[in-house]
Specification:
The chain has about 300 residues and is an alpha/beta fold. The protein has helices at about 20-30, 50-65, 80-95, 110-125, 135-140, 145-155, 165-175, 190-200, 210-225, 225-245, 250-260, 275-290; strands at about 5-10, 15, 15-20, 35-40, 70-75, 100, 130-135, 155-160, 185, 200-205. The longest helix has 17 residues, at about 225-245.
């Protein structure tokens, strides 16, 4: 159900408020560049520092702006199951095509806790759900066996965003979900091509905030069997993909987006704007990739 390039949208801020004018322009740019879908209120969208009201408004704005032209996979996860249910129900009511649910962070639940969390949300919310595993952020990883158990037991859990950066983990998940209606998406821009090679169906991308056409083309080339083009784009993207994480995401990609004209680079505390040294690294990488912008 979810295949191709999905952009994990930044949430532009101005004076600590959501800059909807810049957000709308970013959404239109993404659609024009051919992405399969958009992900508001994920990690890159600074969901952890949005109020629940802001979270609702950002999802609603994205859905209304998209107008069905691409899919909207709304980030609705939290470290509280009740909050996750509320956010996910709202995403359904707002018209989102699916919900992306991060593993509960800080709590460090057991595998049984993770299973019960996701099953509770799935049973309470009639919307397609994509699990999101990013242990580098959450300090807990959902085991391949738990992913498969949820895919078997919950008909609306239909995918996984895999940000483990482990080909072994990816392979285990895909092996255990063979025969099920279940799609895996890369959560790491630098390993999209390797994950496609073992059966992933696409990516939820930070990189595509600033260069969506390149990522869209990479995936399309792979799907057509044009391995040479996919490999060429993989290596062309590699340095910039890394430099967009020169500091904690999303500060670098917001700085890059601001340089390209999509709002300001403001992030919410406790995140801070990138340092002068990191900015220099990022600008060099953007120019090497061929992106043009005014000022620095």
């Amino acid at each position: 159900m979810f295949q191709g390039c999905y952009t994990a949208l930044i949430t532009p801020f101005a004076n600590n408020k959501v800059d909807y004018e810049a957000y709308g322009r970013l959404i239109e740019f993404q659609i024009a560049e051919g992405v399969a879908g958009l992900v508001p209120c994920g990690t890159t969208g600074e969901s952890a520092t949005l109020s629940e009201e802001e979270h609702h408004q950002v999802v609603e704005f994205c859905v209304k702006t998209v107008k069905g032209r691409v899919q909207v996979l709304a980030g609705t996860g939290s470290n509280c199951t009740e909050t996750t249910v509320r956010l996910t129900r709202h995403a359904k009511a707002a018209g989102a095509d699916g919900a992306l649910l991060i593993t509960p962070y800080y709590n460090k639940p057991t595998q049984e806790g993770l299973y019960q969390h996701y099953r509770t949300v799935a049973e309470a919310c009639d919307i397609p759900i994509v699990l999101y595993n990013v242990p580098g952020r959450t300090s807990v990883s959902i085991a391949p066996e738990t992913v498969a158990r949820l895919a078997r037991d919950c008909k609306n859990i239909i995918g996984l965003k895999d940000a483990t950066n482990s080909l072994g983990y990816t392979s285990d998940v895909l092996a255990l979900t063979t025969g099920l209606d279940f799609d895996l998406l890369s959560g790491d821009d630098g390993v999209v091509l390797p994950l496609l090679s073992v059966g992933a169906k696409g990516v939820i991308s930070v990189f595509s905030n600033i260069a969506p056409r390149s990522m869209v083309t990479l995936i399309a080339a792979w799907q057509k069997g044009d391995i040479a083009t996919a490999q060429k784009l993989h290596y062309a993207q590699l340095a910039l993909s890394k430099d967009l994480f020169v500091e904690t995401n999303p500060a670098p990609v917001k700085a890059a987006a601001a340089l390209l004209g999509f709002g300001r680079e403001d992030v919410r505390l406790p995140l801070a704007p990138i340092s002068a040294a990191s900015r220099k690294t990022l600008i060099t990488s953007l120019r090497a990739f061929g992106l043009e912008f005014k000022g620095e």
